[in-house]
Amino acid sequence: MMTIGAWLYSKQQVNLQIESRFEASKNRTIDLIVDRMSRYEDALWSGVAHVDTLGADVTAASWKHFASSLNIEEKYPGVNGIGLIQFVDRQNLQAYMTARESEERDFSIFPEHDLDFLLPITFIEPENINAAAVGLDVAHETNRRTGLLASRDSGGAQITGPIFLVQDSGHTPGFLFYTPFYSGAAPTSLSERRDRFAGVVYAPFVVR
């Protein structure tokens, strides 16, 4: 009985060590993910600061310069790019299109839907790997739209549910990470955030 008891005790200690190591490994993994997502969020907020600084003067060229300064491919592994989505009320659609076509003659918004607002991707860099996403109206799809409106309402960063990126030929599941920006002074209430909402800075991710 002493031998069996010793064996059971030894087995229990081994199991505890395994569980402890697994828990430590899990915690390290979680810490790494949290740290990386925090860095991604910082990059998005820097995009919001860029928009706040330039306002209506944000152009394709200025966005490209901003994105290049981030050095995304080296400093932010896993990110497919950084882009700007603008909120467009249908009554202001023609003015938006005129501004866009002055920079990009072939710019178009897709797909069509019946909502009274649009959320087109205005800029995204690097454009060479994200060209298919330019003009995509993220209001057309539930997960994209729901995540974006949650970011608008909270004033904070928000991750969407699973989606498929239009620019990903492999049709691999991914998600979008949003941070909102507003017109005028910083809003202090939900109603102000909705009234002054102007768009989001976002990053697309493919889960590999």
UniProtKB/TrEMBL annotation:
> Which InterPro entries does this chain map to?
CHASE_dom, CHASE_sf
Q: One GO biological process from the UniProt record?
A: signal transduction
What sequence ranges are listed for the domain CHASE?
Answer: 120-208
Q: Give the UniProt subcellular location, in the record's own words.
A: Membrane
Q: Which UniProt keywords apply?
A: Membrane, Transmembrane, Transmembrane helix
Q: Name one GO cellular component term.
A: membrane
Tell me what this protein is called. Answer: CHASE domain-containing protein
Q: Name one Pfam family in it.
A: CHASE
Gene Ontology terms for molecular function: catalytic activity
